[in-house]
Structures are given as C-alpha cells and as structure tokens.
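<amino_acid_chain>
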Amino acid sequence: MICIQQKPEYFEFVNRILNVRFEPAQAVCIASLSPDGEIYGVVVFSRFTPHNCEMSVASASPKFLTRKFLNVIFHYAFITAGKTRVTAVSEEDNHRILDINRRIGFVDEGRLKCWYGEKDGLILRMLRSECKWLEAKL
C-alpha cells in the first residue's frame, strides 16, 4: 500500500531513522505500508527549487522498494512537482544504499567534503529524461 498523506507518524519515522528534522510545511512524504498499515519505508522530498528537489529515504524493510512505489515517487517528483531533476546525497561508505540508488537510475555527480562530519557525502542525481520509472516508460 502507498500513502501520500502527510501524516505525523511518517515524519517521525524518517526523523528517527535518519536522525534529521524534516518539517511537514517544507517537505512531502510518500510512505510504503504493509497491508495492515505498518510502515515499510518513507521517501521525503525536500529542499525544493524551481528545477530540483532532494530525496531522502528511510526504511525498516526491503519490501518497500517495489516497482509501483518507484513509479509513484518519481511521478510525484517529475510530473506532480514538475522538477527536471532529483538529487540524493549518501554517505560515501554506505555501499548498500549507493548500490540501490545506482541500480534504480541515479548517477554520481559529485562529492561534499565532510558532509556527514568526518565522512563525505556523494551527490547523486536523476534527470527526468533519465528516469525509467515513469509509467509511460515502463
């Protein structure tokens, strides 16, 4: 099940897992839920500019990343929000997340020195023209 309602528990889930503070007035959550409503994962879009938004992901289960969920989140970013790119930043040594990002179509773009304290952040991007998850391209 996929939910685009901006429920406080989705923000609490992401903030707890990522140790950040997303505010509902400045971000949009899309949640992947089990049939009984358990949160599998939440994608947050934030830092909106005219052409870009940043995507952050928190998950409690690998079951959250379905083709349908990918279609929904990228439809939101590229069609609903009308952005031409989505940016993600990952810790340089989080190889599991970097691998997932690359497999779904993100491309390495740069490095943020000491973005995570002692660790660098790797900037990844996906352009609308590169997105294979929009329904028309499936």
Observations:
- The radius of gyration is 14 Å.
- The chain has one domain: 2-137.
- Strands lie at 2-3, 28-33, 39-46, 52-59, 85-91, 107-116, 119-127.
- The first strand starts at residue 2 and ends at 3.
